[in-house]
Design a protein that fits this description.
Elements (H helix, E strand, L loop, with lengths): L1 H18 L3 H19 L3
Helix pairs in contact: 1-2
């Protein structure tokens, strides 16, 4: 599914930012992941 692929790509991006100690960027990606998951699964 397209959304699942996008989530995986964003998770990889988030982990790369964290690995590089770019925590603000990692947090922004984490927030984006949360928004997408909320849309997909209806979670709040």
């Amino acid at each position: 599914e397209q959304a699942v692929k996008k989530l995986k790509k964003l998770e990889d991006k988030m982990m790369q930012h964290a690995k590089n100690l770019e925590f603000e960027e990692a947090a922004a990606v984490r927030d984006e992941i949360g928004l997408i998951r909320a849309k997909i699964f209806g979670a709040v």
